[in-house]
Structure to design on (1264 residues):
């Protein structure tokens, strides 16, 4: 074998020893996905074998030398029906099976911990609720359902973790979600799979799966001093949201305590569940999301808060279990909206505000 | 007649190419550039398409070279992005879409239905000029800096986040779209209005059915692409906001409009190829296509269902989950007619009398590769597995199996099959069989590893990649080299055959189509007198009787 | 052949054109009037219904489709069908997005 | 009376064997040729339907999303001009249809007159459209060019429109989306006007040829097919008028 270049030879050996059809299965959904994939591969192989076997055996049996005169055979309705119905049946099985997996991957369980991901050209910014920030990396514990809430700041990106068999597009202007439960500790690839411009191929990173203890250690190690909700609180104060969203009887806006997940009656009729997407819309396009009983006077914050800022605000609102915290912010910012540019000696500089 | 072939050539010592034919009728460059003869326009198309194919091929070569190593060493990422974008645009809009229809279709649709020309000959010429204008504009774009949006022009990347030549590329695609609309329109009118007496719909060769179905897609789909491109251009220049999320627009709307054309477009590309395969398999097994009606209707079914599945390109992109279910289900349905076709072609071989000339070898290649390509399409149509496989090399491998393994094989099969009719001379058989085998091997080696790469999760459109994917990429690049040889060979020997090929005579393959019942190369008006069709398509017994009578007449 | 020829291109008389013209003008007046009346949900329905009636009149008489071959009629139906497919299937996505995730 | 004239005309056709000069070589009969051309024209109109289909889809989506913006946006359009233009186009469709009739019954003078009337009506349509566009420019309602939200944030700044519809001021986030309405307005009417301009150009060419008697010797295909195109533009406008001008006027 010396006539093969040693480098290639080494490569071959290395590859053959590590040969795999699929990346490691590191999430709970991965084995389910793989089962369907193997089923499909199997069906394809059987189909291909049938076609190839037929073609080869006909080619041998009926080659001109052996079978000089063709016998004209018209079609057969029975056969046509057979190869219409059997593939159709198989495809429908694949459809249902696939739909079940799709349903599973994109329906997070209620108790999932939420991590925010903002995609921008060309990096992934990950925001943990505890205030840990990561770039092009994602640390998650095993044995716990993790929901990712994704959004893009510019173009379409796609957050892909092949080892988990999950992938979701990060869309400009809209939240998308995906969830997984990691099972095996290790470091796995994180890719942006939607072409997003020049450095698309550099928008990659690592997903680090840790045992719950190590994860806890990592969390304390990467503490940034303030949780996401605290960031949101500062922003809430510096934007003077509490000027209207407070608990006074004459408050111009609804109180935000316990609003997350609640069913809100809308001024335009109908109700809506106040989830992340709704809260984001209500901040950026408030007039279309007015709660019943309030006047549509809230100004739009489009262009004034970055996506991270919106995330921090949502996280803040999510954690509002009582009006106490809002009252705190009211006390620190007693000024009408519009004059929030006043020297904020009392409010610490809030992250997430777009500088004019 | 030999035992291994159906080819029967006239006595080479006495045979001559007929003096009066469409090539010799008029001379000079202008007689070609201003021609309205569908056969000459087909030749113009053939030359220009081949030109664009090799440009697209060269770009593919660059892509494969870059991917030989995990790092970006041959070109910078932005260059790489421009290269794969141009590869996609040229191959899709300037090769695959017009390939079989504009060359073989243009040449043979009128002949197969016994007409003197297409219904609108001047429009036909216009569509070639539009095609060239679009193509040259695309090349111009490439020389002045290229474009790096990917052939899908995804918004808001293409409208707000790149500074490259999106406008001129868009214009090129827009113009090429017009060319394709006019070709499709011309075919539909011709097939409806110009059929020879006696040629009913169910006597038409399946090549006609397939092209008819593809033409419907061209006429109904392409305008939507046109408006999508117009909107992109206006969004870029004036900021109309229709696709701009910051202005309340929805960037996904662009993808709806784009894929409304571009999904049917893959059927525009593959259907005419399927038509070629029907002709070739029938002819080289001397049998009527098994289940003629089923194959004919499956073409139409593909065309109709092909319009209802476009959103399966957007399963993970934020369309509603309900839409995902509907489009996934419909995508499963559109796979069925393709399966029907595969089995009908296979069963056509049953009790035939099979020979293995080059067109047949390519057709066998098509059968195998298209089966794989089609089946892997189901992987992507099923919403669950699509999550893992979409946007990876699995997609790349899938559509190259369908487009290159399917369409290009069919195109080469058709070119070899009709070469004697187009030029009056045979191609050299042995070397062309070799080329067919080389192409097949090169193809498998190039694209099969990409399935595994995709399953492993390697994203598409990456200039650099994690090192563990290298070995499969090396395979793929090695295969591409072989594939390149496989494509270069036919160009060389086909050109050689123009002068030195054996004289083919009217009907070297003993084929039944009307196009074979006239001289080769044909007269400008195709037939000395308008033929009357009095038998079914692929009626080899009729042909035998005909030849016997002719033999008697000649002897007498 | 001449008889066949005549049938292929039926000549519509100016009288018919005149009637259609007045019908179209009436439709225009009607649709403007209707838009000033508050009919709630029915406003767009009525506007589109009137517009469609007008379009059908134009197609049938001005464009001679009433007298043309089945092929022409089929072509038009195919076109309208694809037009509606594009709109309804795209809107299906947009409308069902509002239903929430499942 | 007309019927008899048709018969006379047909009888005057040259005998079947001698093909008329306009019959192109690859057709077997003039009838086949006219059939093919007509069918091709219909297919072309199909592509036009799909082309506008993309715009209508965009319109419907954003109208559903931003209905208040679309309503107030449409109040800024002048319904009188819009209705006038509809009437103008309907008349031009009528004169075009009469033109086709003249060609079919071989009335050269009538044909020239009808085409000229259609030409003039077409030009008037564009003229009115120009007036409307100018008004939009003056009010800064052209997206991308100093677009101003004033008419929507403060409807009273626009007394004429306010007097008629008493629009409530839109909230700023909704008012922004009027820009989308006007984008679609300009896109759709602009595409339509572009088709008109092309049509008028062809009409001019046809008038010259018709004066020379080109369409009144039995070969009226071109006039018939152009008529189809013209009526199609009319139909597009009928829908544009209903969708852009008449969203809600009460």
């Amino acid at each position: 074998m010396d006539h093969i270049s040693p480098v290639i030879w080494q490569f071959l050996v290395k590859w053959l020893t590590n040969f795999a059809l699929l990346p490691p299965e590191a999430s709970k959904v991965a084995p389910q996905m793989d089962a369907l994939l193997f089923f499909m591969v199997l069906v394809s192989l059987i189909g291909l074998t049938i076609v190839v076997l037929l073609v080869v055996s006909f080619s041998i049996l009926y080659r001109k030398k052996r079978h000089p005169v063709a016998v004209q055979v018209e079609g057969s309705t029975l056969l046509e029906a057979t190869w219409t119905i059997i593939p159709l049946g198989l495809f429908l099985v694949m459809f249902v099976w696939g739909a079940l997996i799709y349903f599973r991957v994109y329906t997070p369980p209620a108790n999932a911990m939420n991590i925010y991901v903002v995609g921008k050209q060309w990096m992934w910014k990950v925001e943990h609720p505890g205030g840990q920030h990561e770039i092009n990396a994602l640390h998650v514990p095993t044995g716990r359902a993790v929901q990712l809430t994704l959004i893009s700041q510019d173009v379409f990106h796609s957050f892909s973790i092949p080892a988990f068999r999950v992938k979701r597009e990060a869309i400009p202007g809209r939240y998308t979600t995906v969830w997984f439960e990691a099972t095996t500790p290790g470091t796995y690839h994180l890719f942006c799979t939607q072409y997003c411009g020049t450095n698309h191929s550099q928008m990659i990173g690592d997903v680090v799966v840790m045992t719950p203890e190590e994860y806890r250690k990592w969390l304390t190690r990467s503490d940034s001093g303030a949780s996401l909700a605290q960031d949101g609180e500062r922003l809430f104060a510096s934007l003077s949201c509490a000027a209207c969203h407070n608990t006074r009887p004459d408050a111009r806006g609804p109180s935000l305590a316990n609003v997350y997940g609640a069913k809100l009656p809308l001024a335009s009729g109908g109700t809506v569940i106040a989830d992340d997407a709704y809260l984001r819309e209500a901040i950026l396009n408030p007039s279309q999301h007015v709660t019943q009983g309030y006047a549509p006077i809230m100004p739009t914050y489009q262009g004034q808060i970055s996506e991270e800022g919106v995330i921090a605000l949502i996280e803040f609102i999510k954690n509002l279990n009582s009006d106490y915290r809002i009252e705190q912010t009211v006390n620190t910012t007693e000024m009408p909206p519009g004059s929030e540019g006043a020297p904020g000696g009392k409010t610490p500089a809030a992250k997430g505000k777009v500088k004019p | 007649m030999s035992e291994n072939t159906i080819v029967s050539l006239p006595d080479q010592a006495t045979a001559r190419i007929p003096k009066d034919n469409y090539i010799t009728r008029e001379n000079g460059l202008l007689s070609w550039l201003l021609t309205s003869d569908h056969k000459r326009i087909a030749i113009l198309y053939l030359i220009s398409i081949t030109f664009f194919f090799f440009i697209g091929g060269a770009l593919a070569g660059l892509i494969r070279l870059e991917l030989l190593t995990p790092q970006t060493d041959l070109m910078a990422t932005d260059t790489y992005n421009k290269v794969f974008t141009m590869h996609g645009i040229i191959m899709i809009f300037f090769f695959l879409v017009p390939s079989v229809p504009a060359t073989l279709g243009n040449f043979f649709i009128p002949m197969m239905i016994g007409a003197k020309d297409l219904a609108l000959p001047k429009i036909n010429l216009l569509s070639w000029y539009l095609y060239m204008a679009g193509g040259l504009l695309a090349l111009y774009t490439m020389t002045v800096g290229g474009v790096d949006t990917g052939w899908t022009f995804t918004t808001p990347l293409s409208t707000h986040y790149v500074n490259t030549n999106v406008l001129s590329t868009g214009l090129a695609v827009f113009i090429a779209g017009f060319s394709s609309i006019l070709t499709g329109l011309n075919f539909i009118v011709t097939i409806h209005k110009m059929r020879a007496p006696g040629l009913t719909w169910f006597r038409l060769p399946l090549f006609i059915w397939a092209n008819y179905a593809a033409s419907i897609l061209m006429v109904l789909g392409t305008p939507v692409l046109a408006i999508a491109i117009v909107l992109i251009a206006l969004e870029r220049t004036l900021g109309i906001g229709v696709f701009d999320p910051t202005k309340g627009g929805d960037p996904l709307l662009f993808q709806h409009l784009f894929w409304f054309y571009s999904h049917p477009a893959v059927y525009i590309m593959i259907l005419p190829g399927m038509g070629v395969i029907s002709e070739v398999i029938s002819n080289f097994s001397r049998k009527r296509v098994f289940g003629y009606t089923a194959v004919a209707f499956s073409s139409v079914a593909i065309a109709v269902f092909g319009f209802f599945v476009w959103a399966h390109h957007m399963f993970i992109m934020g369309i509603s989950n309900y839409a995902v279910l509907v489009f996934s289900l419909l995508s499963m349905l559109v796979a069925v007619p393709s399966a029907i076709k595969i089995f009908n072609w296979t069963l056509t071989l049953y009790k035939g009398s099979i020979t293995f000339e080059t067109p047949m070898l390519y057709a066998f290649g098509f059968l195998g590769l298209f089966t794989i390509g089609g089946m892997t399409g189901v992987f992507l149509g099923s919403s669950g597995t699509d999550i893992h496989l979409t946007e990876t090399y699995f997609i790349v491998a899938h559509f190259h199996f369908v487009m290159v393994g399917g369409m290009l094989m069919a195109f080469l099969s058709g070119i070899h099959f009709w070469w004697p009719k187009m030029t009056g001379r045979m191609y050299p058989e042995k070397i062309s069989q070799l080329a067919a085998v080389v192409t097949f091997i090169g193809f498998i080696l190039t694209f099969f590893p990409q399935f595994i790469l995709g399953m492993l999760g390697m994203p598409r459109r990456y200039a650099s990649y994690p090192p563990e994917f290298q070995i499969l990429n090396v395979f793929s690049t090695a295969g591409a080299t072989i594939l390149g040889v496989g494509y270069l060979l036919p160009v060389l020997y086909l050109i050689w055959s123009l002068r030195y090929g054996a004289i083919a005579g009217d009907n070297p393959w003993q084929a039944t189509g009307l196009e074979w019942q006239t001289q080769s190369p044909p007269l400008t008006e195709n037939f000395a007198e308008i033929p009357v069709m009095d038998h079914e398509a692929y009626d080899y017994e009729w042909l035998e009787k005909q030849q016997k009578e002719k033999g008697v007449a000649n002897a007498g | 052949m001449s008889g066949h020829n005549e049938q292929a291109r039926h000549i519509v008389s100016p009288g018919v054109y005149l009637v259609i013209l007045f019908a179209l003008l009436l439709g225009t007046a009607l649709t403007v009037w209707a838009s000033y009346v508050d009919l709630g949900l029915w406003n767009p329905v009525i506007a589109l219904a009137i517009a469609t009636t007008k379009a059908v009149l134009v197609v049938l008489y001005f464009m001679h489709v009433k007298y043309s071959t089945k092929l022409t009629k089929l072509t038009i139906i195919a076109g309208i069908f694809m037009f509606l497919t594009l709109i309804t299937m795209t809107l299906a996505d947009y409308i069902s997005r509002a239903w929430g995730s499942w | 009376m007309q019927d008899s004239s048709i018969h006379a005309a047909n009888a005057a056709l040259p005998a079947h064997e001698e093909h008329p000069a306009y019959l192109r070589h690859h057709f077997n009969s003039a009838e086949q040729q006219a059939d093919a051309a007509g069918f091709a024209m219909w297919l072309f109109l199909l592509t036009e339907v799909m082309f506008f289909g993309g715009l209508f889809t965009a319109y419907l989506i954003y109208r559903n999303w931003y209905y208040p913006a679309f309503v107030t946006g449409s109040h800024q359009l002048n319904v009188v001009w819009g209705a006038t233009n509809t009437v103008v186009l309907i008349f031009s469709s009528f004169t075009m249809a009469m033109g086709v009739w003249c060609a079919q019954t071989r009335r050269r003078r009538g044909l020239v007159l009808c085409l000229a009337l259609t030409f003039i009506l077409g030009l008037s349509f564009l003229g009115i459209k120009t007036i409307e566009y100018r008004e939009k420019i003056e009010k800064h309602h052209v997206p991308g060019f100093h677009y101003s939200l004033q008419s929507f944030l403060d409807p009273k700044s626009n007394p004429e429109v306010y007097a008629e519809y008493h629009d409530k001021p839109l909230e700023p986030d909704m008012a922004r989306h009027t820009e989308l309405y006007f984008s679609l307005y300009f896109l759709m009417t602009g595409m339509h006007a572009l088709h008109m301009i092309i049509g008028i150009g062809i009409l001019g060419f046809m008038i010259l040829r018709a004066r020379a008697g080109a369409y009144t010797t039995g070969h009226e295909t071109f006039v018939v097919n152009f008529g189809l195109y013209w009526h199609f533009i009319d139909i597009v406008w009928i829908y544009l008028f209903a969708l852009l001008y008449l969203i809600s006027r009460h």
Observations:
- The first strand of chain A starts at residue 113 and ends at 120.
- Chain A has two domains: 19-223, 228-332.
